[in-house]
């Protein structure tokens, strides 16, 4: 589990903290209720903030990938699957598809590899 740096995490009722500043989460057991679910300890502060959200939901937001990273990971998976499937197409069928369907599978494979390499630079390993 990795905490994503610099993401604002909602604690409820308009309170937000930076994800990389959270040191500890402690569920409130006594007097727990609406507006009092979790104590959130912040780096540099001696007194915890009281969050109205549960510790599970806060943790989920602390480690959740931003949407663009998640989308890039999903796209890479699809491209890898497609590349694997394309590798299984026999040369005779490739020629027929190229000549009759006017679609060059070899060119498509090269382009998919290029895109995967570009994505790896922008969004390093899963």
Keywords for this entry:
alpha+beta, three-stranded antiparallel β-sheet, two-stranded antiparallel ribbon, 126 residues
In a few lines, what is going on in this structure?
The protein has helices at 55-63, 67-87, 91-101, 105-122; strands at residues 8-12, 15-18, 22-27, 38-42, 49-51. The chain has 126 residues and is α+β, with helices and mostly antiparallel strands. Strands 3-4-5 form a 3-stranded antiparallel β-sheet, covered by helices on one side. It has a two-stranded antiparallel ribbon with strand order 1-2.
Notes on the structure:
With 126 residues, this protein is an alpha+beta fold. The protein has two domains: 8-63; 67-122. 47% of the residues lie in helices and 18% in strands. Helix 2 runs antiparallel to helix 4 (105-122). The longest helix is centred in the middle third of the chain and has 21 residues, at 67-87. The model has no long low-confidence stretch (mean pLDDT 87).
Largest sheet: 3 strands, antiparallel
Query: Looking at the structure, what is the overall shape?
Result: rod-shaped
Q: What would the average pLDDT be, to the nearest integer?
A: 87
**What is the terminal separation in angstroms?**
12 Å
Q: Specify the structural class.
A: alpha+beta
Order of adjacent strands in the largest pleated sheet: 3-4-5
Elements, N to C (H/E)? EEEEEHHHH
